[in-house]
UniProtKB/TrEMBL annotation:
InterPro entries: Ald_DH/histidinol_DH (IPR016161), Ald_DH_C (IPR016163), Ald_DH_N (IPR016162), Aldehyde_DH_dom (IPR015590), MeMal-semiAld_DH (IPR010061). This is methylmalonate-semialdehyde dehydrogenase (CoA acylating). Its EC number is 1.2.1.27. PANTHER family: MALONATE-SEMIALDEHYDE DEHYDROGENASE. One of its GO terms (biological process) is L-valine catabolic process. Signal peptide: none annotated.
Amino acid sequence: MRTITNFIDGAAAPLTNPRLGEVYAPTIGQVQAHVELSTPADLNAAVANAVAAQPAWSAMNPQRRARVMFNFKALIEQNMNELAEMLASEHGKVIDDAKGDIQRGLDVVEFACGIPHLLKGEYTEGAGPGIDVYSVRQSLGVCAGITPFNFPAMIPLWMLAPAIACGNAFILKPSERDPSVSVRLAELLIEAGLPKGILNVVHGDKVVVDAILDHPDIKAVSFVGSSDIAQYVYGRGAANGKRMQCMGGAKNHGIIMPDADLDQTVADILGAAYGSAGERCMALPVVVPVGEQTATTLREKLVTEIEKLKVGISTDPEAHYGPVVSAQHKARIESYIDMAVKEGAELVIDGRGFSLQGYEDGYFLAPTLLDHVTPAMQSYQEEIFGPVLQILRAKTFEEAVSYPTQHQYGNGVAIFTRNGDFARRFAASVEVGMVGINVPIPVPVSYHSFGGWKRSGFGDMNQYGMDGVRFYTRVKTITQRWPSGGLVSDQSFVIPTMG
Ligand code: NAD
């Protein structure tokens, strides 16, 4: 059986007698590989290697660093099929969706190709007599990223591309459930010309995450995962004086106004609710139709279309989505469906008990639809992260907006309407970080930035875009004076002013 090892100093770095994690093939429900789980000592070795490599990389002019990113972009494109198959085999998502996962990360690599321009500082000539002031952005040193299972290419690339382009070395701790793509990306970066030690991949679980959070040479940590862990990681890293950026879970709502184009809206909702088996932090697991008539028509159309969805293996081009990631996660999703029924929701379509012929041990779940969900239900308040869509009926626009605003999560939200006034008021007032207007999954493009509010994001800087550049650099401001004519000014015991 294949063993997935750390990648340090530009090469595979097997450990001596490590603990092993199991990497499953969710389609068949069997272990397909083992992943070595690192200790704090293993992390120390990786960080020491990165510390030694980083100064020369940071000193290299940014245009040369950008050229590595250009080469990396080309190599990802050349290896897209292989990467997508590797990703799908460990995660379970269908191949086209796996390519989308890689493409959204590739977009951030493209953004990082512009790093010479993005790193330019500010300059004020003549801020005082003979005095100029300028600010530069300098790299931090060694940074780290801890990533979730659900986007094995996109999220590592969100982090490592800006971090490295800014002149840092980076320690990537991918999800232990689907770690292979991270290693392959690190190999491609070496092929692209990245010096050894600038990207080290360290596998592991909580043990190595804690070691990252406590390591004095790691200056900034980016985390994406579930909210309780995001909050814990944020607190522990910040207490150790690190710069922290921690994205958490989500429960995104789609508000459906009576004037929405319902055929288009239903098509949008299906992909957003059930795509990737609902395992997306920007999935749309709650719809809020406004008015009884909207709810009735929406439900009818949803039922008709859900019955046409095909659940299948990731390599089936006809499949809309594949298995969920693990047996435990499947059981957890099923327990939320039980809970919803016990809480009084109406189970319109039950996705449990589905079995795919020839793949009876795979972690498949058919689509589930729940109606008459209420804000008091625990199954509404918590993230399910599976192919389960909940209908929460509202009487008015104001009531509909109050649900995402009051929810503990605030990652994404969407409104479906033809009325610009509603859309504008919605975008201005809803307490959620990313808003779609007739766009079901409003993940911002790579030159904007990604971040949720409330329990969906801890820390104050978003992922990628200019926030990515800000997160991975620190500003140094220089005030300089070049006295002319050898004049010596009087001593001053007053705080210097430019007056
Ligand atoms: P997770 O929180 O279980 O794991 C995320 C990372 O944390 C992994 O690398 C894991 O090894 C590590 N980890 C797990 N338990 C830990 C512990 N006790 N202490 C320290 N580290 C620990 O998340 P997941 O199941 O891999 O991913 C799904 C979650 O991620 C969902 O909640 C989803 O909404 C969220 N997510 C959020 C975003 C976003 O940008 N907001 C994007 C993708 C996924």
